[in-house]
Amino acid sequence: AWLPQHPVQHAIPSSLHLVGPSFIFQQNNDPKHTSRLFKGYLTKKERDGVLHQMAWPPQSPDLNAIEMVWDEMDCRVKAKGPTNAQHLLELLQVCWKAISGDDLMKLIKRIHQECAKEIFKAKGGVYFVKIHAPWNVLCREAEFMKLKMPTKKVYEVKQSNSIVEKISTLISKILEPLHPHVEEHQPKNIKHLSHTFSREKQHLDVFNTFYCQLTYFSTHTLTHTHAHTYNICEYLLQLLYEEWANYSVFYKYQPIGLVRKYFGEKIGLYFAWLGLYTQMLIPASLVGVIVFLYGCATVDDNIPSMEICHPRNNITMCPLCDRVCSYWKLSTACGTARASHLFDNPATVFFSIFMALWAAMFMEHWKRRQMRLNYEWDLTGFEDEEDHPRAEYEFKVMQKSLRKRQKSQDKVNTIEKLTFQDRLPAYMTNIVMMLLMIGVTFAIVFGVILYRISTKAALHMSSSLITRNHVQLTVKTTAAIINLVVILILDEVYGAVARWLTVLEAPKTDKSFEERLIFKTFILKFVNAFSPIIYIAFFRGRLVGRPGSYLYVFDSYRMEECAHGGCLMELCIQLSITMLGKQLIQNNLFEIGIPKLKKLIRYIRSKQGAFQEEERQKKLTRYETDHFLEPFGGLTPEYMEMIIQFGFVTLFVASFPLAPLFALLNNIIEIRLDAKKFVTELRRPVAARAKDIGIWYNILRGVAKVAVIINAFVISFTSDFIPRMVYQYMYSPDGSMHGFVNHTLSYFNVSHFQDGKEPMDPSHFGYPVVICRYKDYREPPWSNTPYELSKEFWAVLAVRLAFVIVFQNVVMLMNDIVDWLIPDIPKDISLQIHKEKILLVELFMKEEQGKSYIIDSSTSADGKENCSKHNNNSKVAPPRAQMVMSHSSRHPNRFILLR
Fold first, then answer.
1. 0.85 exceeded by pTM
2. Domain for residue 438, yes or no?
3. Structural domain for 832, as ranges
4. Domain Anoctamin dimerisation, which positions (predicted)?
């Protein structure tokens, strides 16, 4: 709502935007540009060229140009600034009240004729207009919007004598140093009751008295009061900077109430969600570090690693590539095997189950936190307003109507809308482009695969021994860095493509537009970020073939295979580089650098405009300085980066238990970085009410459910957990892991190599090799079915599939139990809501009783007056009820005083 003490100011660069609740007018200085009128609300910057809204509530009080007062009865414009703004006066003669379409179009044409040649001859410059709404208009709109207002009297709605409350108070005292020094974090047991605003009951509201004290004064006093109000806003901004947008207070809780008070509920909910998510990462990080330390502590006791590293196990392995690669000893993979145990150990299974339950706990905790904030911010009964049609949608409907009238010559006005048939070309374009973008991502992943294969062959041909010994590490690291660079570039491209496709669909409302944009952006960026990781986790090393019958790409590139320790180590490297790179480069460096760069470019462009020299050299006012800040682009990028991070934390956590720790360290910086950006780098966004985080919650739930399935497959097929368990309980002679490495290696006769595929140096070790080993479950060459899959392979595969089914169902059942055990509404909030309803009923009953008492008293007085026979009765004052009601119709807020 536009509050009188917070006038809306609009920046008008080379054009004028009259923004109100009933219409928007835009006129450009281009003579080819025609005036367009779009009824309805427009609260977001439209980027497709139809409308370009430049309005934003600035953070400064010192407006010194034009004060425009909108009134339903008359229109008046008061010049309070320099005389050079006089040419704006005639243009601003537009009434607040609704005007019929024909009259409004005539008015616009008259404004254009009289003022366009004055306004649009100005060379550059920015004009600022302050718009006020009268009190009666605000009251009417508040009733339509069903705004909740606090009562004057405070009531005790929270019981403080229970054991739980005492424990909570004790914990609050212990955590007092972690709370910011703001008032809303102090414990309170009293509260102003909130009820739907009504003009008949506005005398009960605390805001009515506050409004009268600030607004109804003379012009000079009004200006001073507004300045005082803005000083309050500046104080809030300064408090936010000191207690929120400051890196030195990283260990403190966020002043969410203050954030909501200054930026609105929608932004307040985002930072509340981000704070809770970061807080929940603390236990996940601790458990992840414990799992990692367990792997470090048990690496020397791991029997498979000991067998690989033991020099007596002189096992000759088959070449890793054709011709240029020679035979190699298994003991050279000692370092990789030991490093793999850090992430591939029995504790990772426990950690996967823990993280699945952690995700469920996080969802339930957020629902409870969200309900608590809804109660504290008076959003419990809030319902989303019916969205007005978007300007682009109405423009296309108007074009459709014009085409239909031209064809049928029918002058009857019918309500048109875009049907499925009208949108079918856009839908087909969306499907084709989405598939094309996903195909581009897969093609790039395939290109990186070819890079790995070719680079590995080239490095094996190097004459440097150091280079040949570090081929695997070099290829893995460089390929991961290339994937990171491609991901960062495609993220920006996919964001623009998703917006273009959404604009092409022409959704009817802003909410529908935002949801479709979020869905497309999430799909494209999710595929872009996780397709290389999914390839390494589930496909690499499984489409290789065997020695003598390898699978080739383009008849020359042999598909790459995993190291003997498995692909889990490479998966961990890819995850760590992608996650850290996105967080450090994209999320933090870009968020700091790009707004500052855009601000500098905008400032330089303003200096290069056609301003007069003295105008350039004079000191800029605060609101002019704020105009150079970056416009607020919405919360979608902020949520998106956190959702992708949530995917890194939950989807492949079985292979990277340190992911929650890296996410926690990033988010500690991210909160203060976002806060600093909102306070110092961005224009103050228009406050928007919201009771939840919208579609993002459903995306989080979907990611959490997919994470259970993916972790089940990672444990079963990517790690060696299942083969180890099968060997220990089915094939080990003594029930231990001794002999596991030899059990997983198959035999190959080197004479069975295809022509031209054998190593160029078969006597690399000084003697000819007859038999080499490779990792697979296949029959030996001397069996009746040489190189066929063995029964051990089918036994391991059966156990793997069984584990996936059992793991998935058990974990999801546990998630459902957690969801059932934890109520969505905290018990104390439920009791307070119930008690508040009772108190409101009592308050309104007392109000009605007071009115009845006054009416009865006035009726009794009328009876006595009729029965009296004295001549002086004609001098008696009018009945009290009539006097009270007449005053109530004029000044409803004085009803209690008269009673």
1. no
2. yes
3. 827-898
4. 121-204
Amino acid at 533: I
The CA distance from 240 to 254, in Å, is 9
* Residue 206 structure tokens: 């605390």
CA atoms within 13 A on the CB side of 52: 12
Alpha-helical segments (H) within 377-470: 391-408, 420-460, 465-469
Quickly tell me which residue has 């400051």 as its tokens: 246
Asked whether the beta carbons of 459 and 468 are under 8 A apart, the reply is yes
**Residues whose CB is less than 8 angstroms from the CB of residue 320 and which lie 6 or more positions away in sequence, other chains included:** 328, 456, 460, 561
Q: Which residues pair with 37 in a beta bridge?
A: 25
pLDDT tens digits along 318-371: 888 887 788 888 888 888 888 888 888 888 889 989 999 999 999 999 999 999
* DSSP E strand boundaries for 455-599: 545-546, 549-550, 552-553, 557-558
Band of pLDDT at residue 646, cut at 50, 70 and 90: very high
109 and 207 in a single domain? The answer is no
The Cβ-side half-sphere exposure at 574, using a 13 Å CA radius, reads: 25
Distances (CA, A) of 21 to 13, 24, 530: 22, 8, 44
The predicted pLDDT at position 204 comes to 62
Query: Which of 262, 295, 310 is the C-terminal boundary of a domain?
Result: 262
Give pLDDT, residue 321: 81
Closest C-alpha among 368, 359, 369 to residue 814: 359
Q: Do the beta carbons of residue 50 and residue 391 sit within 8 Å?
A: yes
Q: At a CB cut-off of 8 Å and minimum separation 6, what does 768 contact?
A: 762
pLDDT band at 125 (very low <50, low <70, confident <90, very high): low
Distance CA 503, CA 498 (A): 9
Shared-domain flag, residues 372 and 480: yes
Same domain flag for 480 and 611: yes
Q: Does the residue 712 lie in any domain?
A: yes
Asked if residue 303 and residue 234 are part of one domain, the reply reads: no
Q: Would residue 443 count as lying in a domain?
A: yes
Instruction: Using pLDDT thresholds of 50, 70 and 90, give the confidence band for residue 35.
Output: very low
Question: Does a structural domain hold residue 581?
Answer: yes
pLDDT at position 652 is 87
Statement to judge: residues 709 and 616 lie in one domain: yes
Q: Within this chain, do residues 38 and 80 fall inside the same structural domain, yes or no?
A: yes
For residues 56 and 64, what is the distance between their CA atoms, to the nearest angstrom?
17
Average pLDDT score over the chain:
73
* Whole-angstrom distance, CA of residue 166 vs CA of residue 9: 48
**DSSP code for 181:** S
The pLDDT tens digits of the residues spanning 442-456 come to 999 899 888 888 888
Q: Domain tally for the chain?
A: 4
Three-state secondary structure along 394-419? HHHHHHHHHHHHHHHCCCCCCCCCCC
Selection from 104, 124, 81, 126 nearest residue 35 by Cα: 104
Phi, psi of 198 (to 5 degrees): -145, 135
pLDDT in tens, 699-737: 999 999 999 999 999 889 888 889 999 999 998 888 888
Residues 128 and 176 in one domain: no
Domain endpoint, select from 722, 739, 754: 722
DSSP secondary structure letters along 577-610: HHHHHIIIIIIIIHHHHHHHHHHHHHHHHHHTSS
